[in-house]
Each structure stands twice: as C-alpha cells, then as structure tokens.
Amino acid sequence: MNRKDVAKRFPVKVELHVHLDGAVRTQTILDIGQKRGIKLPASTVDGLNKEIVISYGASLDTLLASFHIFAPVFAGDRDAVYTMAYEFCEDCARQGIVYAEVRYSPHLLANTFDKPAYARESGSFSPRDVVCTVNEALEKGSRDFNITVKSILACIRSSSEWSKEVASLCKEFRNSGVVGIDIAMSEFLSDQHPDECPHRQAFLTAKNDGIHRTTHAGEVGEPANVYEALDDYYAERIGHGYRSILDAKLYERIKREGIHFETCPISSLKTAGASSRTDHPILRFATDGANFSINTDDPTVLGNDLTDDYLMALEFGLTEKQIQTSIFNAAWSSFASDKEKQEIIKKLVEVYGEN
Ligand SMILES: [Zn+2]
C-alpha cells in the first residue's frame, strides 16, 4: 500500500499524542519569524526543513534541540500562539482527524520569567495567558472545521517548580477544553521522596480533582519509569511505553488494567525509542491485543503526518484491521466525556463499521 491508498483506507482518524509546539507549519514559522524579526537559519520551507526535521536514527536529545531553533518564534507572543493552535485544527481536519488531544507546556510558551525557556526576552505573557489563548483558538478552530480538539497541559521533568501551577491550570480550565495532565522531556526517575516531589504532588492533585493523567515513559527510559508512571503519577495512558515489554510482569499488568499506549511509529525510529522495523514493540502490542493508538508526536521536527505513521505501522507488520482497532482504541481511551466518546465512535462506525 502506498501513502495514497492508506489515506483512502483510513479517512477518519483520532489522535491522542501530539505536541502543539511540535505541530507547527514550517511556512508559518517563516512568516511569523519574519513578522517578529526573529532570524531563522533558512528562508524557504525546504531550507528550514533541512535544519529542523531530524533523520532516522537520531536521538530524543536531537529532537528536543531542534525545538530551540524555531520555538522562539512562537514563545511569548499571543498572536503567534493563537495562530499555531488555530492552524493545528485546520491541519487535523485536512487529515480526517475528527478528535484530537493536543499537549503543550504553558510555561515553555510563556515569557514571564527572568530567563524564559524559549522566548527571547521576558514579558507579560504568562502561562495562564498561554492556556487562555490556546483554549480560545482550539474552540474557534474546532467550530470552524467541524472537529473536536481538546488539550493536555504538560509538566516538564527538569522544571519541577512549574508543576503545581500546571495542576491548578488543569483544574481552572477543565470546562474550557483542558482534559488532562502530562509530563514530558528527557526521562529520568525522581530522586526526591515521593511525598516531596512536586511532579508527583501535581499528579496527585490532578487525580483528586478528576483530571485525566498521561505521562511520557518507557520511550527511551527503563521499565522502572513506567512503574513510576503507574504507581506515582496514576497514569491512565503511557506516552510511548515501548520498553514496558522488557518487563513481563509490568507488561502483563498494563494489559490486565487496560492502560493505553500512545505509540508514535516514526518518532520511535527517529529518536531511537525503538530501532527495528521488523521486530517493533508496536507490532507486539497489536499482536497481544494490548490497548494502543498510533500518533505523530511532533510533525514539525519528524516531517510526518498521521497517514505516514499508519503506513509505517503497516511496514512494521500490523494488519489494516489492527490499525482500524487502534483508531477505535484511541476513541475509547481518549479523555473526552462519555457523550463525546459516543459521538466519535459513531463517526468511526459510519466509516469502518462495528470494530
Ligand atoms: Zn511526546
């Protein structure tokens, strides 16, 4: 099957694991960069893609480094953040995505710090302002393009001082499109006592507030990270999770409890979360009937869309039926309300029949 066949075979899709600041159009990066006077290493789409799209067999650190090239274009600027979120909805609709959950760190896009993470200078665009802006853009985009896009707010592992605010923003905006909390960036285990770790505190608060939880774990890190995600972060879904299969007890538990793996085929190969196309953990998940979905992760730096990832999953050896099941899995394991889930499932059944 080629790309065109795959797009035709799977016209309706659901996406659960994609980063807002990793899903920006290259042309938009150039346009806003020019408008804001931010210098970029190239002035054409092809030229800039050469600088920011990473190749197969790179690393998670290479991927994260790529963000530093273009994230300053958006960080700290309300209009830029709005455009990024609004166009995300349009791009989802173009791909046939009827429901998406897009994640981001409000703190990385804000500039109210002495030394902002991405923004070039300090200013008055706070993490809360970022969330309000994204909510507004996703709501308008969902309406204009007749799809549903919700958001997940991410903690950043290396910046535990932000996590408490992330949990409180989740609670404040739970009725304005924010459906969950995540933790992202390089994997390492917390060396703080569980009761004192701000990340764990934030996830406990989120759980008590009825906020859904997902965590990046077991992508390039060890099974111990996945245990931590389940036991200390109360994760209902695991971002990636490939390394869970290295621990039979853990893998059995995940299957038994129906924990959902948000897999990202192309991302896994480009960041060395997994290296083999013939013996890929996603094939194992599919064969074993584990609960998993297929996602893009960071299209801007991976150069993919969801059709490319379905195509890659077929290359791993998944059947068309298994990919179809993964789309239904995504709908059932989404953080949408029960009523919204029924609506998504109805759209899937119209196209694919009962799964
Ligand atoms: Zn991710």
Going by CATH, the architecture would be: Alpha-Beta Barrel
Shape: globular
- The end-to-end span amounts to 22 Å
Average pLDDT taken over every residue: 95
Spatially, the strands of the biggest sheet line up as 1-2-3-4-5-6-7-8
Number of helices: 17
Rg estimate, integer Å:
19 Å
Q: How many beta-strand runs?
A: 8
At the first level of CATH, the class is Alpha Beta
Low-confidence stretches: none
- How many domains? The number is 1
The CATH topology turns out to be TIM Barrel
Describe this structure in words.
This protein has one domain (3-350): Alpha-Beta Barrel (TIM Barrel), CATH 3.20.20. Helices cover 50% and strands 14% of the residues. Strands 1-2-3-4-5-6-7-8 form an 8-stranded parallel beta sheet, sandwiched between helices. With 355 residues, it is α/β, with parallel strands linked by helices. The chain has 17 helices and 8 strands. The protein is globular, with a radius of gyration of 19 Å. 53% of the residues are buried. The model has no long low-confidence stretch (mean pLDDT 95). Strand 5 (212-217), helix 10 (223-232) and strand 6 form a beta-alpha-beta unit. Helix 5 runs parallel beside helix 7 and helix 8 packs parallel to helix 9 (198-208). The longest helix has 18 residues, at 78-95. The structure holds zinc ion. Zinc ion is lined by residues 17, 19, 184, 216, 239, 297. Zinc ion (ZN) is lined by residues 17, 19, 184, 216, 239, 297.
